[in-house]
Description:
There is one protein chain. The chain has helices at residues 2-5, 11-17, 24-31, 70-80, 93-103, 138-146, 181-196; strands at 18-20, 36-40, 59-64, 86-89, 107-112, 125-128, 131-134, 149-159, 162-171. The chain has 213 residues and is α/β, with parallel strands linked by helices. It is globular, with a radius of gyration of 17 Å. The termini are far apart. A hairpin with a 2-residue loop joins strand 8 (149-159) and strand 9. The chain is built from seven helices and nine strands. The longest helix has 16 residues, at 181-196.
Amino acid sequence: xxxxxxxxxxxxxxxxxxxxxxxxxxxxxxxxxxxxxxxxxxxxxxxxxxxxxxxxxxxxxxxxxxxxxxxxxxxxxxxxxxxxxxxxxxxxxxxxxxxxxxxxxxxxxxxxxxxxxxxxxxxxxxxxxxxxxxxxxxxxxxxxxxxxxxxxxxxxxxxxxxxxxxxxxxxxxxxxxxxxxxxxxxxxxxxxxxxxxxxxxxxxxxxxxxxxx
Length: 213
């Protein structure tokens, strides 16, 4: 319901309902003129992170997986493109980042990377809520390849219809972090978020379908 409401809610009302508690984290990175990888989980009203684009100078880009139903795909794109956020399909992400880097276009790339990868895209396992499962490693790969700062957006429900997001830096030098270290740190932050209030996690996704037996 909140996702659909995004289409009609005013900017003023949205800013009251979704507050970023420490926007200075991104502001400091902007001063250093280095693009950002923003990681999030499917938790609470994560969709409203698109409001960040009103408050930053960087181009906000949301990475999403195209939906086979063209009508629902258009709806999702319309909702997530509000506030001048640019949407890019997962398969077009690398060419876009590469092009932006060459042209010096500073951007913040947002990915919700907590769900399960396809069986043919499994490269690494990690513990998630006590179960060994495959995890997405694409965000870390992109951060290392293009030297991006990495930040986790922790969303918290304050009360009905009101949320806060706190930005937690994960790496300012991704290339120096051991392989899968950023992914591991991200998963740990997602776990903390869930343990605090598990009722707001997106449990309908089959997160453990490729678990290690």
